[in-house]
Structures are given as structure tokens and as C-alpha cells.
Amino acid sequence: MCRFSMFTSVTFAIMLTFTVNANAGSKDTGKTTLKDLQPAGTTDNKNKNQQYDFSFSASGKDYTCRTAQKTKMKATDFLVGSDLSYEVDGDKGKLKSSSGKKVECSIVRASVAAAAPATK
Fold this sequence. Notes:
The protein has one helix spanning 2-24; strands at residues 28-40, 51-58, 61-67, 83-89, 92-97, 102-112. It is an alpha+beta fold. The chain has one domain.
């Protein structure tokens, strides 16, 4: 009888560990508004594509997500103030504009979103 309960306890602990690990790696997805889009860095003969920093708020956090040097995109495809679909997975991000344009980026900054000031 003792052997069965110990086996059950160990099995339960292992299942709990897998459940916690599965939830820890979950992706944050949803819709938000693009707060800002700024060029980042400079271009040269070797790096001809302009990098961009996307700023948006999601799930109580403010994010800045930077495109890679190899990413070619038009800034006019992502209008500041427009709707944006996002997916954040660790330090990787995927954004999709309301017109369907997609871009992958790296999260370079994350902070707790500032609370709106109270009105009187």
C-alpha cells in the first residue's frame, strides 16, 4: 500500500511539473493599437534595409520591438494609431497590420504600462 501511494505522489509531482512548464512558455497574443514607429540605426552599403522600432501596449506592458537588418518593409504599411495584431513569445514578436502586412521583430524593451492619470 505504501508503494502505491509513493508511486502516485511521484507521478502527480511529475505531471504538475510538466503543467507548470507548459504554461510558462505560453504566447501572449491579441489586438492593440500601434503607439509609435521610429527608424532605428542607420543604413550603409552592407546593411541596406532600415530597421524600425514598433511601440505598443499589450497585457499591461509597454513593448518596443525592433525589426532585423535583413527585414525589408515599408513604414507606410504600419500607420501609427491603427489596429495591430501581435504575438509575443519571450523576446520574439510577430506583428500584423490591419491591412494584412506581417513583420517579425525582437523585443528590445518591455516595461510595466503606466496607469492612466485619475480624472477629477
